[in-house]
Amino acid sequence: MKFIYSDSLDGVDPTFNFLKESCSPERQPYWDDLLPHELLGYAPYDGVLVSKATVGDHRIKGSYTIGQARRFELVGARKFLRLDEPEFKNIEIFGDCGAFSYVKEDEPPFTPEEMAEFYAECKFTHGCSVDHIIFDFDDKLSGMSGGTAEAKRRFEITLENADIFLRANRAIGSSVVPMGAIQGWSPDSMAEAARCLVGQGYKYLALGGMAPLNSSQIQKSLEAVRSKIPSWIKLHVLGFAKADEIQYFKGYGIESFDTTSPLLRSFKDATKNYYLPTGDGKLEYYTAIRIPQALENPRLKKFVKMGVFKAEDLVKLEADALSSLRQYDAGIRPLSSTLEPIIAYNAAFVDGELYNGGTLSPKMQDLKDKYIKTLSHRPWDRCSCKACTGAGVEVMMFRGNTRNKSRGFHNIGVYAQHLNDLELRPKAIPVADTTPPATAKERQQSFDFTPF
């Protein structure tokens, strides 16, 4: 399977000063920040997916600024994502519409003809037809039974748009590989959609609406779809949220899948924030140490406003937690005394009270146990990726974008290696060069991640 990284222009500032908590005053995020393949020194993915909704326009506010969106369309996806160097020539650029962003609309905001032109002008290698998400999924339904009137309306819209998109793609002589988007309210309705798309002429299909489904529902959908289409038809899974369970999808003929899960886990998961391979085809998870910024964390700011804490008390707790973790990393503080200030600060924003050494709440005790594992195992010292060797223990702090996304980029690299270990990728990722990669001329930035 090809691992396609779903991009939202997430970058890491290589000049960030961890001790001063500051960026360079001259920093320009798009130009200066590093994308995963730049920070790690190699591309850990087989391709990148960019949604039209992420780029944005006058109808949908995307993640890009107006200037970035214009540059994307002017220079094309590959150059914009800085994948135009020779070593990245085999990285594929997938595109879709970003249907989750307009799920509440009666009709998709983008026309099939418009999307065909967008993919061609921006030099994508693959482009999905315009779909409309169906959420009311029931894997117990058979045939074309069930399904609300709205679900069936969206089913027809998606198929009609696919037919128009394929014709438009051919009419403009595009080299973009067209992908027919599948939507349905059950495995069998998805299978029927797949059958219709193959009849239209598609050779590559993309299963949409997968993100909210559990593994069993996705597997049933894949089984149903595969039963209705020739074996040579390629399948892509859009927004594969079950990326950690990929080994259970080995026999379903998946050609490719896109996911942001390894990155998102670094700062959205309650406990599984940092990955390491175990050596036996599995992943070991670690909980990042939560040390939020005392004067910026919304929950702590609320407590101060309510009079639960004084701002100066929280600032001191924060400073003590940071100092203890850094001293532990340097080998000048034992684990037991390292935990004390960290737990004291965590109790403030988890339990909303100052901790004075008494019995911990069940939630705090569970968090403490996970912190003991993280600190005693010292996973940041066991990884040779540039995110970890550059940031050191800072990569294990759940605190701010630079640390959180550095940890996420590390996870992406580990996940790619995990796929290699499972022998699921078409070819192994290249071995990372041990020398720092050359910086782009227009940025002139150092890859040194320890400016202090």
TrEMBL record:
Protein name per UniProt: Queuine/other tRNA-ribosyltransferase
SUPFAM superfamilies noted in UniProt: tRNA-guanine transglycosylase (SSF51713)
InterPro entries: DNA-guanine_TGase (IPR053537), TGT-like_sf (IPR036511)
Transmembrane segments: none
Listed GO biological process terms: tRNA modification
Region ranges (Disordered): 432-452
Domain of life: Bacteria
